[in-house]
Amino acid sequence: AVVSTQSTGAVERKRAISEEEREEEVDLYAEHARISEEKKRKKRKKKKGIAVLSEDPTLMATGEEEEKRGITYKIMKNKGLTPHRKKEQRNPRVKHRKKFDKALKKRRSQIPDLREQGGSYGGEKSGIKSALTKSTKLR
Hints:
By secondary structure, this protein is mainly α. It has 4 helices and 2 strands. It has helices spanning about 20-50, 75, 85-90, 90-110; strands at about 1-5, 10-15. It has a two-stranded antiparallel sheet with strand order 1-2. A hairpin with a 5-residue loop joins strand 1 and strand 2. It is elongated. The termini are far apart.
């Protein structure tokens, strides 16, 4: 068999593959095909609900070739009865953003916002209150 390989130029060089290299390629291909088939078999078993994890003691066979049924996600997590939560509670980023907005609103009600002045007077930063009198009457 002859394989073509390109060198640095536009000229193609051909070399003969030895029988040993050919055998190695065939063996490598066969090994890869066997591994691929094994993965597919495990995937099919997992899809059917048959246990694939042999480390789990609940999934081990009892002397027979027949395998036990694998445990479900619900059994594995063992959450029991949990209350329904809003979508924003399940997303930490959104939850903290809402919490921050709520805290800002609370703060705005306690501390008045700064108002812009129309004129050149740079006095009271919170704005001039026309209805407020802070003087004492002289007698």
